[in-house]
Automatic annotation (TrEMBL):
<dbReference type="InterPro" id="IPR011051">
    <property type="entry name" value="RmlC_Cupin_sf"/>
</dbReference>
<dbReference type="Pfam" id="PF07883">
    <property type="entry name" value="Cupin_2"/>
</dbReference>
<feature type="domain" description="Cupin type-2">
    <location>
        <begin position="39"/>
        <end position="102"/>
    </location>
</feature>
<dbReference type="InterPro" id="IPR013096">
    <property type="entry name" value="Cupin_2"/>
</dbReference>
<dbReference type="InterPro" id="IPR014710">
    <property type="entry name" value="RmlC-like_jellyroll"/>
</dbReference>
<protein>
    <recommendedName>
        <fullName>Cupin type-2 domain-containing protein</fullName>
    </recommendedName>
</protein>
């Protein structure tokens, strides 16, 4: 079953208080021609392999702790931290704790 995206003006909880993080799924909240927003759930120990996207992006740690690696640096993102990555920057993620991220990607034509 496909998960429907948010419509303009619609509100959704990023981390519902009644649901444990280990019961949440990663979902694309919405996508339009210029922007995609994803709630990414990473259980402790899970990694996202090296990859890149064409457009600029941000990774916001909503809860937990994630190691973010690029060719240039390693950064630990903790609850409340935001990281900006320019378009084309190869990066990878590793969850040091059960984590929820808000990933925003600028889509290029």
């Amino acid at each position: 079953m496909a998960i429907s995206h948010l419509s303009s003006g619609q509100v959704c909880p990023l981390l519902p208080s009644s649901v444990a993080i280990d019961n949440l799924q990663s979902i694309a909240l919405f996508k339009d021609p210029h922007l995609e927003v994803i709630r990414m759930i990473l259980p402790v120990g899970k990694s996202i392999p090296p990859h890149h996207v064409r457009g600029a992006m941000t990774i916001q740690c909503l809860i937990g702790e994630v190691l973010s690696k690029t060719d240039q640096q390693e950064q630990v993102l903790r609850t409340g931290d935001l990281q900006y990555l320019a378009g084309g920057v190869e990066h990878q993620l590793h969850a040091n704790q059960d984590s929820a991220l808000l990933v925003t990607i600028c889509l290029l034509s």
